[in-house]
Write a structure and sequence with these properties.
By secondary structure, the chain is an alpha+beta fold. It has helices at 3-48, 55-68, 79-83, 141-147, 151-177, 207-218, 226-233, 241-258, 278-295, and strands spanning 94-100, 115-116, 120-124, 129-137, 180-183, 186-189, 194-196, 223-225, 261-266, 270-275. A hairpin with a 2-residue loop joins strand 5 and strand 6. Keywords: DNA-binding, Membrane, Transmembrane, Transmembrane helix.
Length: 296
């Protein structure tokens, strides 16, 4: 299997796992909120011993239902209900709602995207009315996500990010170092047809310089005749000697700066890439050192 496909597959698998873990944490947070609403509502019912809402609220509910000739939904901010909540973040966003269960209404609550508790059917002792009671909390998806446990999701996303960065660096290094040949401190990668110096920095040859370097690099003993070079670079020119001479003259300083190689002309018949002698390298170092101290 191609290593790139495998790397992408592992990255996608890690990201999907992160998303699934995040979704699981989100749903788990909603379940915890629902459980908190349920226990708070039960404790409130036990504390009030059946008198959950006031008689005035029940009378107001009946009048509103008669006037509206339809469903009525009352939202009551109940302090005791909010005090019974374990999660302090829910206290300012939780309210109580009730329906009267009779021949007109079966006690069903309207559909809502808010998180709610289970419905409790209780008997209001003071009025003898049967009530369907439910608690709600107003929370946005962002709030629920912030309250959820996203440690596994974050960890998997972080691992996926590290994997992506590592894969990119590995592929980049493989492209640079894969099928690399070296000669005289110069490196050539056949994967991307590029020359590099000893620090793995690409050398900016002109297109003609790059083509000449490739020809000399792949030639036997790194040497080619002048006629073969001219025929390959300028096939339509009858006499390209001067053009070749200019090309070589401009290429020499670039090559000698970034490597230990030099282009040597053999009696005007051929050109070759050769490693500079140690004495020449030492002379170049002395000249560079002398010029440095002179400037200072």
């Amino acid at each position: 299997m191609d290593s790139r496909i495998l790397s992408v597959g592992i990255f996608v698998a890690l990201m999907l796992s992160s998303l699934l873990a995040g979704r699981q944490g989100y749903l788990g947070a909603k379940e915890e909120i629902t459980a908190d609403l349920n226990q708070a509502l039960l404790r409130m019912v036990e504390e009030r011993q059946g008198n959950i809402v006031t008689q005035d609220s029940i009378r107001a509910y009946k009048r509103l239902r008669q006037v509206s000739d339809g469903e009525v939904w009352l939202a009551i901010a109940d302090r005791k209900l909010c005090r019974n909540l374990k999660n302090q973040k829910l206290k300012d966003k939780t309210f109580l709602s009730f329906n009267i269960v009779d021949e007109v209404c079966s006690g069903n609550f309207p559909e809502s995207d808010m998180i709610s508790s289970d419905t409790l059917i209780v008997n209001h002792k003071a009025t003898g009315t049967t009530l369907a009671v439910r608690s709600y909390t107003r929370l946005s998806a962002i709030w629920i996500f912030r309250m959820s446990d996203q440690r596994w999701s974050s960890l998997l996303a972080f691992v996926a990010l590290l994997w992506a960065i590592g894969s990119m660096l590995r592929m980049r290094k493989k492209n640079v170092s894969g099928e690399v040949s070296s000669y005289g401190g110069l490196f050539y990668s056949s994967a991307n047809e590029c020359f590099y110096d000893a620090h793995h920095v690409s050398i900016d040859f002109t297109p003609m310089q790059h083509q000449l370097m490739r020809m000399l690099w792949h030639a036997p003993s790194h040497s080619m005749s002048k006629e073969a070079i001219c025929a390959a670079l300028w096939p339509k020119k009858t006499d390209a000697n001067n053009t070749l001479y200019t090309l070589v003259r401009r290429l020499k300083p670039i090559l000698e700066t970034c490597s230990e190689l030099q282009i040597v002309a053999h009696r005007g018949r051929s050109y070759s890439l050769e490693i500079k002698k140690k004495t020449e390298c030492q002379d170049n170092v002395r000249k560079m050192s002398a010029s440095f101290f002179t400037e200072r």
